[in-house]
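Researcher: Here's the sequence for the chain we discussed earlier.
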Amino acid sequence: MIEKFVYRSIPPLTILLALAGLLVTSCFHNTQGFSTRGGNPILEVRDYIDNGYSNKLSYQLCIMPDDEAIKELASQIDGVEDAYEVAVGWIYVSEQRLNGTADKWLSPHEFLIDTPHYRSNPVPGEVVGDCEEQAHTLVSLIRAEGVPPEEVRVVLGKAGSGNEEKGHAWVELLTNGYWLVLDPSCGPCWDNEAERLVNRPGVPFEYYAVHTYPVPVITAYYNDIYYLDPGDSSGNAPGWWLDVVPEENHQLAQKESGQVVGSGDNTPVFIIGLKEGWQR
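Model: Thanks. This is the structure I predict for it:
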């Protein structure tokens, strides 16, 4: 009865104005690259980039260590290696298949909580998304595990070599004085052409400590606190972020371990997946 009384006591004109306000707000958010599907923010960074948008904060908003879904998951795991093991089990589904667009970045909350229920999810009940969602969520999880922001970051750029260079996002963790590459999207994936799930096992936690990760282009480094543009060194990240280069340290690790890494080992697993037929 109280609920009915409160509802009836609101003048009709007030209700209409409130609805109009919501409509205007929704249109504004969509114009800026946000949507409210599922009640959680979706950040379309591609729209920002294509229109010359330069607010670097938009990248940092994608890292959410304080999100309730992230904190709940963090409470169930023990440390960074555990976080990676969870992440490498997430299923890669292309942006076009899941969201019907070339590039739309979902929040970690929506990735974990909402994507299992998307009608467009080809593996109902499973957490699915592409490389950005997986990288953002893994960094959020690592940060929630207590790792300082100086020691973990998302890397946005291209990976691969020659005609196999592809836009990609991955994670780097400061370990033993060098940046260790963690690529959560190297696990299971959905093959759009064959319409089937490819159960790839991913790679071990320290795989890229002794294998080169080919990175021809890096656009940005970031987490929830820091951002760095390697092109002009702008941003608020520590200056030494550019002094520690994963490639050089991986080569050193290979030399010290006596391991010879052939050219076939230089291709990221997600690129190998492309060769095998599954589509990004």
